Write the C-alpha coordinates for this entry.
Amino acid sequence: MTFLRWVDAWWMQPLNAQPLALFRVLTGVFALVYIIWQWQYLTSAASFDASQYEPVGIATLLDQPLASWAALSLLWMSIVLGVAYTLGWRFSLTGPLFAILLLWVMTYRNSWGQIYHTENLLVLHVLVLGFTRSADTLSLDGRREARAPEAGLEYGWPLRLCALITVLSYFLAGWAKLNISGMAWITDDVLRNHIAYDIIRYELMGITKRRSDAGCCARSGSSRRLRLRRWLSNSARPWRCCAAESQRSGRLRSGSFIWACLPRCSSSSPIRWQGWRSCPCSPGMVNRSWLWFVERCRRSDPAYIHIRRFTRRSHRSEAANGTSSMSSRDYADN
Amino acid sequence: MRPRVRAYAITIILGGLVASPLFGAFAGDSFPISTFPMFATARSSEISISHVVLVGSDGAVWVPPPSTIANDEVLQAQETVRQALEAGERGLEALCGRVASRVDPDDAVEVRIVTSTYDALDYASGDLDPIGRRTHAACAVAS
Protein backbone atom coordinates (compact mmCIF):
# COMPACT_ATOMS: atom_id res chain seq x y z
CA MET A 1 0.00 0.00 0.00
CA THR A 2 2.86 2.32 0.76
CA PHE A 3 4.20 1.88 -2.76
CA LEU A 4 0.79 2.56 -4.31
CA ARG A 5 0.44 5.62 -2.15
CA TRP A 6 3.86 6.79 -3.29
CA VAL A 7 2.92 6.20 -6.93
CA ASP A 8 -0.34 8.07 -6.44
CA ALA A 9 1.41 10.98 -4.75
CA TRP A 10 3.96 11.14 -7.58
CA TRP A 11 1.45 10.75 -10.39
CA MET A 12 -1.09 13.18 -8.98
CA GLN A 13 1.38 15.83 -7.91
CA PRO A 14 -0.25 19.28 -8.12
CA LEU A 15 1.22 21.55 -10.77
CA ASN A 16 0.56 24.97 -12.28
CA ALA A 17 -1.54 25.07 -15.42
CA GLN A 18 1.13 26.79 -17.55
CA PRO A 19 3.47 23.87 -18.37
CA LEU A 20 0.59 21.72 -19.59
CA ALA A 21 -0.86 24.63 -21.58
CA LEU A 22 2.52 25.38 -23.11
CA PHE A 23 2.87 21.74 -24.14
CA ARG A 24 -0.56 21.97 -25.76
CA VAL A 25 0.50 25.01 -27.75
CA LEU A 26 3.74 23.32 -28.82
CA THR A 27 2.03 20.11 -29.91
CA GLY A 28 -0.66 22.12 -31.68
CA VAL A 29 1.85 24.20 -33.63
CA PHE A 30 3.88 21.10 -34.45
CA ALA A 31 0.80 19.18 -35.59
CA LEU A 32 -0.34 22.05 -37.81
CA VAL A 33 3.08 22.54 -39.36
CA TYR A 34 3.37 18.80 -39.84
CA ILE A 35 0.02 18.51 -41.60
CA ILE A 36 0.83 21.43 -43.89
CA TRP A 37 4.36 20.13 -44.49
CA GLN A 38 3.06 16.68 -45.29
CA TRP A 39 0.10 17.94 -47.29
CA GLN A 40 1.17 16.46 -50.61
CA TYR A 41 1.70 13.05 -49.01
CA LEU A 42 -1.50 13.18 -47.00
CA THR A 43 -3.48 14.01 -50.12
CA SER A 44 -1.62 11.67 -52.46
CA ALA A 45 -3.62 8.70 -51.20
CA ALA A 46 -6.34 9.89 -53.57
CA SER A 47 -4.16 8.81 -56.48
CA PHE A 48 -3.50 5.33 -55.09
CA ASP A 49 -5.31 2.27 -56.30
CA ALA A 50 -8.05 1.12 -53.90
CA SER A 51 -6.38 -2.31 -53.81
CA GLN A 52 -3.45 -0.72 -52.00
CA TYR A 53 -5.64 0.13 -49.02
CA GLU A 54 -4.37 -1.85 -46.02
CA PRO A 55 -6.19 -0.32 -43.06
CA VAL A 56 -4.55 -0.21 -39.65
CA GLY A 57 -5.82 0.98 -36.27
CA ILE A 58 -9.15 2.78 -36.39
CA ALA A 59 -9.05 2.80 -40.20
CA THR A 60 -10.00 -0.89 -40.05
CA LEU A 61 -13.52 0.44 -39.48
CA LEU A 62 -13.56 1.10 -43.22
CA ASP A 63 -13.27 -1.74 -45.72
CA GLN A 64 -12.74 0.66 -48.61
CA PRO A 65 -10.80 3.92 -48.77
CA LEU A 66 -12.70 7.15 -48.39
CA ALA A 67 -13.79 9.14 -51.41
CA SER A 68 -11.09 11.68 -52.15
CA TRP A 69 -13.39 14.64 -51.38
CA ALA A 70 -14.17 13.15 -47.95
CA ALA A 71 -10.50 12.55 -47.14
CA LEU A 72 -9.65 16.07 -48.24
CA SER A 73 -12.49 17.57 -46.21
CA LEU A 74 -11.27 15.79 -43.08
CA LEU A 75 -7.79 17.12 -43.71
CA TRP A 76 -9.08 20.69 -43.95
CA MET A 77 -11.17 20.14 -40.83
CA SER A 78 -8.10 18.93 -39.00
CA ILE A 79 -6.36 22.19 -39.81
CA VAL A 80 -9.30 24.28 -38.61
CA LEU A 81 -9.62 22.25 -35.42
CA GLY A 82 -5.84 22.30 -35.01
CA VAL A 83 -5.92 26.09 -34.93
CA ALA A 84 -8.73 25.99 -32.34
CA TYR A 85 -6.76 23.42 -30.30
CA THR A 86 -3.61 25.52 -30.40
CA LEU A 87 -5.43 28.72 -29.48
CA GLY A 88 -7.51 26.94 -26.85
CA TRP A 89 -10.82 28.06 -28.27
CA ARG A 90 -13.86 26.17 -26.90
CA PHE A 91 -11.39 23.52 -25.92
CA SER A 92 -13.80 21.15 -24.21
CA LEU A 93 -15.18 20.50 -27.69
CA THR A 94 -12.33 21.28 -30.09
CA GLY A 95 -9.64 19.53 -28.02
CA PRO A 96 -11.14 16.03 -28.14
CA LEU A 97 -12.35 16.58 -31.72
CA PHE A 98 -8.91 17.57 -32.95
CA ALA A 99 -7.31 14.66 -31.10
CA ILE A 100 -9.69 12.19 -32.73
CA LEU A 101 -9.43 13.82 -36.16
CA LEU A 102 -5.62 13.84 -36.03
CA LEU A 103 -5.74 10.18 -35.04
CA TRP A 104 -7.94 9.50 -38.06
CA VAL A 105 -5.94 11.57 -40.54
CA MET A 106 -2.63 10.01 -39.53
CA THR A 107 -4.05 6.51 -39.32
CA TYR A 108 -5.57 6.87 -42.78
CA ARG A 109 -2.25 8.10 -44.18
CA ASN A 110 -0.61 5.00 -42.66
CA SER A 111 -3.17 2.67 -44.18
CA TRP A 112 -1.51 2.27 -47.56
CA GLY A 113 1.07 -0.35 -46.69
CA GLN A 114 3.69 1.87 -45.11
CA ILE A 115 3.48 2.79 -41.43
CA TYR A 116 5.40 5.89 -40.46
CA HIS A 117 6.36 5.29 -36.86
CA THR A 118 7.55 8.85 -36.45
CA GLU A 119 3.93 9.97 -36.18
CA ASN A 120 2.92 7.74 -33.26
CA LEU A 121 4.00 10.02 -30.46
CA LEU A 122 2.47 13.14 -31.98
CA VAL A 123 -0.92 11.45 -32.19
CA LEU A 124 -0.69 9.92 -28.72
CA HIS A 125 0.40 13.17 -27.08
CA VAL A 126 -2.40 15.12 -28.72
CA LEU A 127 -4.84 12.44 -27.57
CA VAL A 128 -3.68 12.95 -23.98
CA LEU A 129 -3.77 16.73 -24.19
CA GLY A 130 -7.03 16.90 -26.10
CA PHE A 131 -8.88 15.01 -23.40
CA THR A 132 -7.40 16.86 -20.42
CA ARG A 133 -7.58 20.41 -19.09
CA SER A 134 -4.65 21.68 -21.07
CA ALA A 135 -6.33 24.91 -22.17
CA ASP A 136 -7.15 26.46 -18.80
CA THR A 137 -4.48 29.06 -19.45
CA LEU A 138 -2.49 30.36 -22.47
CA SER A 139 -5.74 30.06 -24.36
CA LEU A 140 -8.73 32.02 -25.59
CA ASP A 141 -10.86 30.09 -23.12
CA GLY A 142 -8.50 31.08 -20.31
CA ARG A 143 -8.75 34.77 -21.19
CA ARG A 144 -12.43 34.71 -20.36
CA GLU A 145 -11.70 33.63 -16.81
CA ALA A 146 -11.37 36.41 -14.26
CA ARG A 147 -8.21 34.97 -12.69
CA ALA A 148 -5.52 32.48 -13.52
CA PRO A 149 -6.18 28.87 -12.50
CA GLU A 150 -4.57 27.65 -9.32
CA ALA A 151 -2.21 24.73 -9.19
CA GLY A 152 -4.12 21.50 -9.22
CA LEU A 153 -4.00 17.72 -9.60
CA GLU A 154 -5.28 17.83 -13.17
CA TYR A 155 -2.29 19.73 -14.59
CA GLY A 156 0.52 17.38 -13.64
CA TRP A 157 -0.37 13.84 -14.61
CA PRO A 158 -1.02 14.51 -18.33
CA LEU A 159 2.61 15.62 -18.67
CA ARG A 160 3.76 12.53 -16.80
CA LEU A 161 1.58 10.38 -19.04
CA CYS A 162 3.07 11.92 -22.18
CA ALA A 163 6.54 11.25 -20.79
CA LEU A 164 5.57 7.70 -19.90
CA ILE A 165 4.21 7.08 -23.41
CA THR A 166 7.42 8.45 -24.93
CA VAL A 167 9.60 6.25 -22.74
CA LEU A 168 7.40 3.22 -23.36
CA SER A 169 7.58 3.73 -27.13
CA TYR A 170 11.36 3.87 -27.15
CA PHE A 171 11.55 0.95 -24.74
CA LEU A 172 9.28 -1.07 -27.04
CA ALA A 173 11.41 -0.20 -30.06
CA GLY A 174 14.48 -1.52 -28.26
CA TRP A 175 12.68 -4.50 -26.80
CA ALA A 176 11.37 -5.49 -30.25
CA LYS A 177 14.91 -5.73 -31.58
CA LEU A 178 16.08 -8.01 -28.81
CA ASN A 179 12.85 -9.97 -28.86
CA ILE A 180 13.01 -10.63 -32.61
CA SER A 181 16.74 -10.93 -33.29
CA GLY A 182 18.09 -11.66 -29.81
CA MET A 183 21.49 -10.49 -28.67
CA ALA A 184 22.72 -10.89 -32.25
CA TRP A 185 21.13 -7.53 -32.90
CA ILE A 186 23.80 -5.99 -30.66
CA THR A 187 26.73 -8.29 -31.29
CA ASP A 188 26.23 -9.10 -34.97
CA ASP A 189 25.97 -7.01 -38.14
CA VAL A 190 22.18 -6.69 -38.10
CA LEU A 191 22.07 -2.92 -37.72
CA ARG A 192 24.82 -2.35 -40.28
CA ASN A 193 22.95 -4.51 -42.80
CA HIS A 194 19.68 -2.73 -42.10
CA ILE A 195 21.32 0.63 -42.67
CA ALA A 196 22.93 -0.62 -45.85
CA TYR A 197 19.52 -1.92 -46.93
CA ASP A 198 18.00 1.46 -46.19
CA ILE A 199 20.62 3.30 -48.22
CA ILE A 200 20.31 0.94 -51.16
CA ARG A 201 16.52 1.06 -51.20
CA TYR A 202 16.55 4.84 -51.17
CA GLU A 203 18.77 4.80 -54.22
CA LEU A 204 16.77 2.10 -55.97
CA MET A 205 13.58 4.01 -55.33
CA GLY A 206 14.95 6.99 -57.18
CA ILE A 207 16.52 9.14 -54.50
CA THR A 208 19.85 9.56 -56.21
CA LYS A 209 22.83 10.94 -54.44
CA ARG A 210 25.31 12.73 -56.60
CA ARG A 211 28.71 12.34 -55.11
CA SER A 212 30.31 15.41 -56.56
CA ASP A 213 29.61 19.09 -56.95
CA ALA A 214 28.23 20.78 -53.87
CA GLY A 215 28.50 17.86 -51.50
CA CYS A 216 29.58 14.30 -51.49
CA CYS A 217 26.07 13.03 -51.20
CA ALA A 218 23.79 15.80 -52.48
CA ARG A 219 20.52 14.59 -53.85
CA SER A 220 18.89 15.32 -57.13
CA GLY A 221 15.20 15.94 -56.65
CA SER A 222 12.78 18.45 -55.32
CA SER A 223 11.03 17.12 -52.26
CA ARG A 224 10.68 19.80 -49.62
CA ARG A 225 11.59 17.36 -46.88
CA LEU A 226 14.79 16.35 -48.58
CA ARG A 227 15.70 19.94 -49.29
CA LEU A 228 15.41 20.59 -45.55
CA ARG A 229 17.55 17.57 -44.83
CA ARG A 230 20.16 18.83 -47.23
CA TRP A 231 20.09 22.17 -45.50
CA LEU A 232 20.42 20.46 -42.13
CA SER A 233 23.28 18.37 -43.41
CA ASN A 234 25.02 21.46 -44.72
CA SER A 235 24.65 23.07 -41.31
CA ALA A 236 26.68 20.30 -39.76
CA ARG A 237 29.27 19.86 -42.40
CA PRO A 238 31.40 17.12 -40.92
CA TRP A 239 28.29 14.98 -40.80
CA ARG A 240 26.87 16.14 -44.10
CA CYS A 241 27.45 12.93 -45.92
CA CYS A 242 25.85 10.84 -43.23
CA ALA A 243 22.98 13.28 -42.90
CA ALA A 244 22.23 13.23 -46.59
CA GLU A 245 22.73 9.50 -46.78
CA SER A 246 20.55 8.63 -43.87
CA GLN A 247 17.70 10.88 -45.00
CA ARG A 248 16.76 10.94 -41.34
CA SER A 249 18.62 13.09 -38.93
CA GLY A 250 17.77 10.70 -36.10
CA ARG A 251 20.20 8.18 -37.43
CA LEU A 252 23.10 10.51 -36.88
CA ARG A 253 23.08 9.28 -33.33
CA SER A 254 24.00 5.80 -34.49
CA GLY A 255 27.73 5.27 -34.44
CA SER A 256 27.32 2.13 -36.47
CA PHE A 257 25.68 4.08 -39.22
CA ILE A 258 28.83 6.05 -39.75
CA TRP A 259 30.56 2.85 -40.68
CA ALA A 260 28.00 2.08 -43.29
CA CYS A 261 28.28 5.60 -44.63
CA LEU A 262 31.97 6.26 -44.52
CA PRO A 263 33.30 3.88 -47.14
CA ARG A 264 30.94 5.31 -49.71
CA CYS A 265 31.68 8.90 -48.95
CA SER A 266 35.38 8.42 -48.78
CA SER A 267 35.42 6.34 -51.90
CA SER A 268 33.42 8.80 -53.91
CA SER A 269 34.84 11.99 -52.56
CA PRO A 270 38.24 11.64 -50.96
CA ILE A 271 38.90 15.34 -51.20
CA ARG A 272 35.98 16.10 -48.97
CA TRP A 273 36.98 13.33 -46.65
CA GLN A 274 40.23 15.15 -46.17
CA GLY A 275 38.39 18.46 -46.01
CA TRP A 276 36.31 17.38 -43.04
CA ARG A 277 39.42 17.04 -40.97
CA SER A 278 39.76 20.78 -40.79
CA CYS A 279 36.39 22.06 -41.79
CA PRO A 280 36.19 25.76 -40.90
CA CYS A 281 32.40 25.77 -40.91
CA SER A 282 31.90 23.18 -38.24
CA PRO A 283 31.50 24.03 -34.58
CA GLY A 284 34.68 23.38 -32.61
CA MET A 285 33.30 20.60 -30.49
CA VAL A 286 31.90 18.73 -33.47
CA ASN A 287 35.17 19.14 -35.31
CA ARG A 288 37.17 17.89 -32.34
CA SER A 289 34.82 14.92 -31.96
CA TRP A 290 35.24 14.17 -35.61
CA LEU A 291 39.01 14.32 -35.37
CA TRP A 292 38.91 12.04 -32.35
CA PHE A 293 36.75 9.66 -34.30
CA VAL A 294 39.10 9.65 -37.29
CA GLU A 295 42.13 9.09 -35.09
CA ARG A 296 40.42 6.29 -33.26
CA CYS A 297 39.65 4.66 -36.57
CA ARG A 298 43.20 5.13 -37.76
CA ARG A 299 44.67 3.43 -34.74
CA SER A 300 42.41 0.55 -34.03
CA ASP A 301 39.86 -0.33 -36.59
CA PRO A 302 40.57 -2.42 -39.67
CA ALA A 303 37.65 -0.73 -41.37
CA TYR A 304 39.67 2.45 -41.53
CA ILE A 305 42.45 0.65 -43.31
CA HIS A 306 39.83 -0.36 -45.83
CA ILE A 307 38.65 3.24 -46.09
CA ARG A 308 42.17 4.54 -46.59
CA ARG A 309 42.91 1.94 -49.22
CA PHE A 310 39.71 2.87 -50.94
CA THR A 311 40.42 6.55 -50.65
CA ARG A 312 43.77 6.12 -52.35
CA ARG A 313 42.17 4.01 -55.05
CA SER A 314 39.50 6.64 -55.62
CA HIS A 315 42.13 9.36 -55.69
CA ARG A 316 43.89 7.51 -58.47
CA SER A 317 40.67 6.82 -60.30
CA GLU A 318 39.58 10.44 -60.00
CA ALA A 319 42.92 11.63 -61.20
CA ALA A 320 42.62 9.31 -64.17
CA ASN A 321 39.02 10.20 -64.99
CA GLY A 322 38.99 13.76 -63.85
CA THR A 323 35.68 13.25 -62.04
CA SER A 324 33.90 11.13 -59.50
CA SER A 325 30.36 12.10 -60.36
CA MET A 326 27.64 9.56 -60.62
CA SER A 327 24.17 9.77 -61.96
CA SER A 328 21.16 7.58 -61.65
CA ARG A 329 21.90 6.29 -65.10
CA ASP A 330 24.96 4.56 -63.74
CA TYR A 331 22.82 1.65 -62.67
CA ALA A 332 23.64 -1.10 -65.06
CA ASP A 333 21.27 -3.93 -65.70
CA ASN A 334 23.00 -7.27 -65.35
CA MET B 1 -16.03 12.42 -13.23
CA ARG B 2 -13.71 12.96 -10.32
CA PRO B 3 -10.27 14.20 -11.41
CA ARG B 4 -8.43 11.26 -9.87
CA VAL B 5 -10.69 8.66 -11.48
CA ARG B 6 -10.44 10.42 -14.83
CA ALA B 7 -6.66 10.63 -14.53
CA TYR B 8 -6.26 6.94 -13.83
CA ALA B 9 -8.83 5.92 -16.44
CA ILE B 10 -6.98 7.80 -19.21
CA THR B 11 -3.60 6.63 -17.90
CA ILE B 12 -4.59 2.98 -17.78
CA ILE B 13 -6.30 3.02 -21.18
CA LEU B 14 -3.58 4.88 -23.11
CA GLY B 15 -0.60 3.56 -21.16
CA GLY B 16 -2.00 0.04 -21.36
CA LEU B 17 -2.56 0.29 -25.11
CA VAL B 18 0.95 1.60 -25.77
CA ALA B 19 2.47 -1.12 -23.56
CA SER B 20 0.22 -3.89 -24.90
CA PRO B 21 2.75 -5.19 -27.51
CA LEU B 22 4.93 -6.19 -24.56
CA PHE B 23 2.28 -8.73 -23.64
CA GLY B 24 1.79 -10.02 -27.17
CA ALA B 25 -1.51 -8.23 -27.68
CA PHE B 26 -0.67 -7.38 -31.29
CA ALA B 27 0.61 -9.86 -33.82
CA GLY B 28 1.48 -7.26 -36.44
CA ASP B 29 2.26 -3.60 -36.58
CA SER B 30 -0.45 -0.97 -36.29
CA PHE B 31 -0.94 2.75 -35.75
CA PRO B 32 -0.55 4.56 -33.39
CA ILE B 33 -0.03 1.48 -31.23
CA SER B 34 3.02 -0.21 -32.67
CA THR B 35 5.22 -3.21 -32.12
CA PHE B 36 8.06 -1.18 -33.67
CA PRO B 37 9.33 -3.99 -35.89
CA MET B 38 11.45 -1.73 -38.09
CA PHE B 39 15.15 -2.59 -38.19
CA ALA B 40 14.48 -5.49 -35.80
CA THR B 41 14.62 -8.59 -37.97
CA ALA B 42 17.90 -10.33 -38.71
CA ARG B 43 19.25 -9.28 -42.10
CA SER B 44 22.23 -10.59 -44.01
CA SER B 45 24.62 -8.47 -46.02
CA GLU B 46 23.08 -9.88 -49.19
CA ILE B 47 20.19 -7.54 -49.79
CA SER B 48 17.32 -8.04 -52.23
CA ILE B 49 15.08 -5.14 -53.09
CA SER B 50 12.18 -5.08 -55.52
CA HIS B 51 11.96 -1.88 -57.48
CA VAL B 52 11.25 -0.31 -60.84
CA VAL B 53 13.75 0.48 -63.56
CA LEU B 54 13.36 2.37 -66.80
CA VAL B 55 15.11 1.36 -70.00
CA GLY B 56 16.15 3.93 -72.56
CA SER B 57 16.26 3.47 -76.31
CA ASP B 58 20.04 3.13 -76.06
CA GLY B 59 19.70 0.29 -73.55
CA ALA B 60 20.64 2.41 -70.56
CA VAL B 61 18.89 1.42 -67.36
CA TRP B 62 18.05 3.78 -64.51
CA VAL B 63 15.65 4.11 -61.64
CA PRO B 64 12.71 6.52 -61.84
CA PRO B 65 11.82 8.90 -59.00
CA PRO B 66 9.38 7.54 -56.41
CA SER B 67 6.65 9.89 -57.63
CA THR B 68 6.28 7.78 -60.78
CA ILE B 69 5.48 4.76 -58.58
CA ALA B 70 3.39 6.26 -55.76
CA ASN B 71 4.31 9.67 -54.40
CA ASP B 72 7.50 11.44 -53.36
CA GLU B 73 7.87 9.13 -50.35
CA VAL B 74 10.45 6.44 -50.98
CA LEU B 75 8.97 4.08 -48.41
CA GLN B 76 5.51 4.41 -49.89
CA ALA B 77 6.91 3.71 -53.35
CA GLN B 78 8.61 0.59 -52.04
CA GLU B 79 5.40 -0.57 -50.37
CA THR B 80 3.56 -0.03 -53.64
CA VAL B 81 6.03 -2.33 -55.42
CA ARG B 82 5.69 -4.90 -52.62
CA GLN B 83 1.89 -4.79 -52.86
CA ALA B 84 2.08 -5.24 -56.64
CA LEU B 85 4.33 -8.27 -56.22
CA GLU B 86 1.99 -9.75 -53.63
CA ALA B 87 -0.98 -9.18 -55.90
CA GLY B 88 0.69 -11.28 -58.60
CA GLU B 89 0.56 -10.81 -62.33
CA ARG B 90 -2.40 -8.44 -62.33
CA GLY B 91 -0.85 -6.23 -59.71
CA LEU B 92 2.46 -6.14 -61.55
CA GLU B 93 0.80 -5.30 -64.84
CA ALA B 94 -1.22 -2.54 -63.22
CA LEU B 95 1.84 -0.99 -61.59
CA CYS B 96 3.92 -1.35 -64.73
CA GLY B 97 1.21 0.38 -66.77
CA ARG B 98 0.83 3.11 -64.20
CA VAL B 99 4.54 3.87 -64.16
CA ALA B 100 4.67 3.72 -67.97
CA SER B 101 1.90 6.31 -68.17
CA ARG B 102 3.88 8.66 -65.91
CA VAL B 103 7.25 8.60 -67.66
CA ASP B 104 8.29 10.63 -70.64
CA PRO B 105 8.27 8.45 -73.78
CA ASP B 106 11.16 10.50 -75.17
CA ASP B 107 13.19 9.43 -72.19
CA ALA B 108 12.36 5.76 -71.63
CA VAL B 109 11.03 3.03 -73.87
CA GLU B 110 10.37 0.32 -71.32
CA VAL B 111 9.42 -0.11 -67.67
CA ARG B 112 10.59 -3.15 -65.74
CA ILE B 113 9.69 -4.31 -62.25
CA VAL B 114 12.69 -6.18 -60.94
CA THR B 115 14.25 -7.59 -57.82
CA SER B 116 17.91 -6.66 -57.50
CA THR B 117 20.30 -8.37 -55.13
CA TYR B 118 23.33 -6.57 -53.77
CA ASP B 119 26.16 -7.31 -51.45
CA ALA B 120 25.86 -4.48 -48.93
CA LEU B 121 29.59 -4.21 -48.28
CA ASP B 122 30.49 -4.17 -51.97
CA TYR B 123 27.82 -1.59 -52.58
CA ALA B 124 29.04 0.56 -49.70
CA SER B 125 32.51 0.36 -51.20
CA GLY B 126 31.30 1.71 -54.50
CA ASP B 127 30.47 -1.42 -56.48
CA LEU B 128 26.98 -0.42 -57.56
CA ASP B 129 26.30 -3.37 -59.85
CA PRO B 130 23.82 -5.89 -58.49
CA ILE B 131 25.01 -9.47 -58.05
CA GLY B 132 21.67 -10.59 -59.45
CA ARG B 133 18.57 -9.13 -60.99
CA ARG B 134 15.28 -10.82 -61.71
CA THR B 135 12.64 -9.23 -63.92
CA HIS B 136 9.04 -9.79 -62.78
CA ALA B 137 7.24 -7.70 -65.35
CA ALA B 138 8.03 -5.42 -68.26
CA CYS B 139 5.91 -3.11 -70.36
CA ALA B 140 6.55 -0.63 -73.12
CA VAL B 141 6.14 3.09 -72.66
CA ALA B 142 3.49 4.29 -75.11
CA SER B 143 4.88 6.98 -77.33
About this structure: Residues 69 and 77 of chain B are 6 Å apart (CA to CA).
